[in-house]
Amino acid sequence: MKYLVHICRILVGGLFIFSGMIKLNDPLGFSYKLQEYFSTEVLNLPFLDPYALGISVFVVVLEVVLGVFLLLGYKRKFTIWMLLATIVFFTFLTFYAAFFRSSKRLWLFWRFLKTKTLGEFQKRHNTPYSYSCFGIWN
Predict the structure, then answer these.
(1) Which are the contacts of 129, defined by CB distance < 8 A and separation ≥ 6?
(2) What's the rounded Cα separation, in Å, for the pair 79 and 21?
(3) How far is Cα 52 from Cα 87, in angstroms, rounded to an integer?
(4) Looking at residue 114, what DSSP letter applies?
(5) What is the tens place of the pLDDT at every residue in 47-91?
(6) 3-class secondary structure, 41
(7) Closest CA to 29 of 94, 102, 107
(8) Residue 52: HSE in the Cβ half-sphere, 13 Å Cα cutoff
(9) Which of 9, 43, 109, 121 is 20 to 30 A removed from 128 (C-alpha atoms)?
(10) Which helix (H) or strand (E) covers residue 6, if one does?
């Protein structure tokens, strides 16, 4: 069981670092995507539009830092809860965009693949190891 936990930590930590690095290549593009999500047609939060670039940089840095924290085992409880919150947030955002067809493409982890939003949602849920690690790592 101990080896399984270490493997999950490495996989999920690497996944978050890789995802953050992809978004780090173009934080302005990610902020445009956030502005699209904040529009009145999608989440109806237009007051967040001026803060989209700051939010995108914060999310990218948070994602990379949490991945590194997970790999190092630093502040375990905080890291696990923040990773869980991040996964829940992006899962909701992906589901919302896929189900209501509010976005043509997603700017999340799989953006380097040519997929539609529903394919994105299915790909994110075919990685159960990212959820299983939270229950077994103390």
Answers:
(1) 8, 11, 12
(2) 18
(3) 19
(4) -
(5) 988 999 999 999 999 999 999 999 998 988 999 999 999 888 888
(6) coil
(7) 107
(8) 18
(9) 43
(10) helix 2-24
Residue 7 backbone phi and psi in degrees, to 5 = -65, -45
Name the DSSP letter for residue 50: G
Q: At how many degrees (to 10) do helices 52-72 and 76-99 cross?
A: 130
Q: Are 38 and 52 in contact (CB under 8 A)?
A: yes
pLDDT in tens, 9-56: 999 999 899 988 888 888 888 888 888 888 877 788 889 889 999 999
Residue labelled with tokens 């043509």: 104
Task: Give residue for tokens 């959820």.
Answer: 131
CA distance 33 to 107: 7
State the chain's maximal CA–CA distance in angstroms: 47
Please state, in angstroms and as integers, the Cα–Cα distance from residue 122 to each residue in 93, 110, 116, 118, 125, following that order.
Answer: 13, 11, 10, 6, 5
